[in-house]
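Sanity check

After download, print the first record. It should look like this:
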Amino acid sequence: MQVSEGRLQADDLLVMGRISAPYGVKGWLRITAFTEIPENLLDYAPWYLNIRGEWRETQPLEGKLHGKGLVIRLPDCSDRDAAAALSGTDIAIYRSQLPATDANEYYWSDLIGLQVVTMDDRPLGRVDHLLETGANDVLVIQGDRERLVPFIQDEVIRSVDLAAGRIRVDWDPDF
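Expected structure tokens:
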């Protein structure tokens, strides 16, 4: 693995996948991508691997879609033992490597942690994570209790203010 020059700022990194297991005997790796389209992870370089608590920069040499995940080859990983040693390793990129979003488009990572309030400023809690349901994404909000609020812009989601860290929703707090 190539270690990057200088200190990486872990707060600026987004985990986009994980090395799940070796693939074959020549050092290839199975990857679980956290992207909507798994092979999109191959569009980003460099990658940063969290190896024993330290982020290290690497460049995927080659990769391809395999089943529902990816298989890839990394530098200095040429046998099954080296690949096995990387199992469970997170793969991250810098937020700045992602394409810019259009107006009213958000990456899930931008929404996590935002305060959610009703139209009359009643706090519901903070976005803990999101669920993909097929019909629409759902905010999982942790507050006095867990709430599931569909991310339907203009109907339920009235505004998202990333700078203020707030999402305003048209939602009954008793629901």
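If your output differs, re-run the checksum step. Summary of this record's structure: Confidence is low (pLDDT under 50) at residues 1-7.
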